[in-house]
Amino acid sequence: MTTKNINAKIFDQETNEFLSEIPIEVELVTSPDPNEKPYYVVKGKFNDMRVEFSDKNFILELSPSIRGIAFFTIESIMGCLTIYKIYLQDSCWLNLEWFEQL
């Protein structure tokens, strides 16, 4: 497993309007079994109550050249900490190149 922490940006999927920054953790999970494909576990955290992004698609921008559609859903709320599980939806997330560029 390899983990990278970055500050990402969230944009509206329809208008491309900037909505918020979010610190995210991207974990590349690989298996010793060569027949199993690697996959990503992505989580974002807000240090306040932020429920407006739950169960919606947004454009997630990790850098100006790395952006694509992602689905956000709340994983947990602990006091004022909101943790989102982020599912990478776009075909641009299917290769390892973007992860290596982070």
What does this structure look like?
It is a single chain. The model has no long low-confidence stretch (mean pLDDT 93). The chain is mostly beta strands. A hairpin with a 2-residue loop joins strand 4 (56-63) and strand 5. It is built from 1 helix and 6 strands; from the N terminus they run ββββββα.
Task: Write out key terms for the chains shown.
102 residues, mainly beta, six-stranded antiparallel β-barrel, 6 strands, 59% strand, globular
Low-confidence segments, given as residue ranges, are none
Question: What characterizes the major β-sheet?
Answer: 6 strands, antiparallel, barrel
Shape: globular
Radius of gyration: 14 Å
How is the secondary structure organized here?
Blueprint: E1 2-12, E2 18-29, E3 39-46, E4 56-63, E5 66-78, E6 81-88, H1 97-101
Antiparallel strand pairs: 1-2, 1-4, 2-3, 3-6, 4-5, 5-6
Summary of the model, kept short:
The chain contains 1 helix and 6 strands.
